[in-house]
Structure formats: C-alpha cells, structure tokens
Amino acid sequence: MRPAGPRGRGPWCHGRWLYALAVVALLAQTGFATATTAREQTPTIDEPVYVGAALVYTRQHSLRYNPEHPPLGKLVVATGLMFADARLDPRFDGDQTELGRHVLYESGNDPWRLMLLARLPVIALTLLFGLVVLAFARDLAGPIGGLAALALYSFSPDVIAHGSLATLDVPAAGFLLTSVWLLWRARRRPRLYLPLAGAALGAALATKASTLPAVPVLLLLAVLSVWHARRADRPGPHAPGPHPSGPDAPGPREGARSVAYAAAGAVLVALVAVAVVWACYLAVDPRLRWTAPDDLPDTGGLRELAVRTLPFPQPYRDGMRVQFGFEETTWSGFLFGRHYRGSLWYYLPAALLVKTPLGMLALWAAGTLALLLVPRLRPAAPYVLVPVAVLLAAAMTGSRDLGVRYALFVPVFLALTAACVLALPWRARHAVTAAALLYVAVSSLRTYPYYLPYSNEAFGGPSKTRLRLHDSNVDWGQDLGRLADHLRHRHAGERIWLVYKGSGVPSFYGIDASDPRKAPPDRVRGLLVVSDSSIAKAEGRLEALIRSSEPIDTVGHSITIFRR
C-alpha cells in the first residue's frame, strides 16, 4: 500500500481539514452571535448619527455631518445601506442627531431593516479581523496558538457587543491590529509589507482620530522591522561562502546605510497612511468642499500646534478641534455605585476588570509574562504590548468615562496572548490554556444575547453590571424594541411612565408613555420604566420617584421596571 504523501489523504490532510473546521466553527459562532444581536437590538445612541452621515456622504457627497470622526467607518456602514433604498430628504438641514432621527423614523424607512443592513459590514469586518488575529498568532506561536488566540477573540463579549453595531470602535481597533501584524511580517519582507502596513494604519486613522497616539509607535516598529530585515539579510560569521573583509566588511558605513533604510521604511509607512486618509475624504467629495462649523471650539497651545502640523485635510483637523472641545467639557461618570463629575484616571482599567471574562484576564496576564520571558517571543513584545500600553495611557487621560469601547483595542490585541501562553515552559500549559478558554466560552455563551451589559462572575454577571457601570457598558439605548415587546405581552393596558436614554423613538415601537419628571409625583402611578444609565445618574425628582417605587422586572439587563 502506497503511503499517503503531503498531497494524499493521510493524517496530515485530515489535520488540515480539522483545523479549517475549527476556524470556521469559531468564526461561525462570532458571526451568529453578532448577527442575531444586530437583528434584535434597536439603535444605540451613536448609530443613527453614523447612518445619517453615511447616507449624506454617498447621496450628497457632503462632509458637513459628524466631522468629529473621519469618514472611513461611515463609508463602511454605507456599503450595507446601498441595499436599503433608504429615503433621504435632500432639503433636510437639521443637526446630526436630528438627521439620524429623520432618516430612521421620519422618512418612511424601516429602522429595523436599515439598522441591520448598516451593521452587516461591521460584522463582516469583525470576522475578517478574527482572521488577522489567527494569522498573527500563528506567526508567533504556531497553528495551535493561532486557534487559541482566535477563540479568545471570538468569545470576547466586548468584541461581539461592538462588532454587532454600526459604530467605529471595532473597525479602528481591527485596522490598527492589521497594521501591526503587517509590520511584524515586514521583518522578513519589508518591500511587500511596509506599504500594506501603511494602508492599514491609514484606514485606522481614517476611522477614528483616537488612533493617532499609536502613530509614533508604529513608525518606530517600522524602523525596527526594516533594521531586523537588514540584519537577517547580512551573512553571519558562520554562513557558507566568502565573507567581506577589509574596506568591504560591515562597519560604520553599513550601519549608516541600515539606519537610512529603516528611516525610509518609516517614511514610506507614514506617506501611505496619509495618502489613505486623503483618499477617504476625496471618496466622499472629490472637490473637498468644507465649511467649518460655526461652533468650532477654539483650541490653543500644544493641541492647536499639533492640529495645524498634521498633513491631513482641513475637515480632519477641524474634527480634531471638535474632539478637543469635547475633552474640555466636564462629563459625568459612574463607577462602582458612585456618580461623579469629571473623570477618573483609573476608570478604564477598572471597567475592563469588570467587563472582561475571568479566564481572559488570566490568559492576558500569563501571555504578557510569556512575551516578556520566552526568548523566541520577546521580539514580538514591542509589537503586541507597546501599542496597547500607549493607547490605553492616552485613553486614560480622556474626560469621558463612558465605556470600555474607548479601550476596545485591549481585547483585540491581547487575544494574541492566548497563543503566547502555549510557549511557556509549563508541562500543563495546554491543559491550563484550554481550561481558561473553555471558561471564557461558557461565560460568553451564558450572556447571549445581552453582550453589551456583560460583566464577569466576580462582579455578579450581566444582571449586576448596572450597579457598577453605566452608559455603553450597560445601557446604550439598545433594548427599546425588547421593552416594547415586554410591555405588550406582560403589562398591556397599564399606564407607562418612561425615562429612556437612547436615540430610539418609543412611540414608533408602540410605547405610549409620559415623562414622570414633568408631572407631579402623586400623579405618577402605574409602571415607572427607567433606563439603567438614568438610574445611575438620577437626582432630584427622578431619584425620589425611584426610591419610592418597587422594582418588579428588568429588560435586557439595561432597563428596570418599577411599580408605583
């Protein structure tokens, strides 16, 4: 009997099929979770703005809406809206919040269908970034490591929650990860991968300006990759063949040449990234017509200097001024039951501690240790850990304590650490990694389909997240449709008093409700329905109404129903 070779149907071939099936199964799980979540959730607070802006971009070729964010993420959303045949009044001249409401609820469009089509391209990107995680982890730790990293990414509640929405957080983090992976590959083939890394970096910058702090890091990584490639191409002392000697031997001149090549590589990455940003704006309006908003904040000092020196279109720079204006605003936050004004530097680490599965936290810690201690993984540490550290440090200085979505790059990048754990010199490393991944999977599956309010078991699970966090960590307006179904089936005919935090229109979903804050307290009788973010920040009359009411039910772990 002839033995099966590499092209036969032997164990090697079967192993390839099993591996491919495992990859497909993990991505299918993510696809199912994101698609069903997208289908069941009503618009979150930011989504209508992006949907409205996307339609204006493609129909009117105007950049006037949502300038605080670059256009690429909204152009991604627009690819789904191409199939919606959505109505848009060309004479509409309201602000971007009014635009979103107009498109979804006042133009004869079906908001359920429109939102699903807007979310599908982001879901597709979420799955593609899973393949990037797989490929990057395979490069670091082999095929099994790739599967471990993909599993950690695929079951991440935060990745699923935000990968199912027509928002910008997953695309920005994913494009940045793609750029870093390509820079890692540029250590062997810089001519091929450096331009691609620049394109991916440009895509990240053209999606969210909050990725800008990573630019110096990635340019230094480009230098490091080219330097490594030059050293790898240089024959070692024990390599066969003749070795240069005398004036041709490697020396200061060769070192200077390597530095020049490395610097040129970083310049190439930067130029391609800048070109991609410009291309995204020109794709919306080839003439780049732009009028700065009347209420554009007047930034000064180093911020204004940074804005003026950026080689980006004027709308991008004015969008940064809008963002700096947001940063100058005093926002309110909620952490571990405390409502406060301003921001806390430790908010994001604390929120990540609550909203990350325990097994994932353990793998992050062990994988980081492996990256720092295992010699063959140590070269990858600057690529995996430094961008995360820099971006997290920058995000922690922000003024908006509104959710872990501002640090979504953490679970996206640190999924790679699961692969690195397998390189530790522990006899039980495979069993420990498998057990941690199983724990993450079970914890993630148990929260289905309520991924947005997820918190781990140490903090009581999704039903208790509202006691410790607010806003997009718990309640982003996503459960208005579920609330309508709940009231229709369980509380038909009862008087409804509603305090809803979101962009949806309750009456569209059949909710006939009044605002309890505009009525005398003794007239507020029946059902008091309050979004959990509003409960977290309740003051004055609303706080008194809540204290004098009895909680009887919850919807989606984001809305509480009281009886009065």
How do the helices and strands line up, and which of them pair or pack?
Layout: H1 11-40, H2 47-60, H3 72-81, H4 96-105, H5 111-154, H6 157-163, H7 169-185, H8 190-205, H9 215-233, H10 252-284, H11 301-309, H12 314-328, E1 332-335, E2 338-341, H13 347-355, H14 358-373, H15 381-396, H16 409-414, H17 417-421, H18 429-447, H19 480-490, E3 496-499, E4 513-514, E5 527-531, H20 532-536, H21 540-547, E6 550-555, E7 559-563
Parallel strand pairs: 3-4, 3-5
Antiparallel strand pairs: 1-2, 5-7, 6-7
Helix pairs in contact: 1-5, 2-3, 2-4, 3-5, 5-6, 5-7, 7-8, 7-9, 8-10, 9-10, 11-12, 14-18
Any key phrases for this structure?
five-stranded mixed beta sheet, 564 residues, disordered N terminus, single chain, mainly alpha, two-stranded antiparallel ribbon, globular
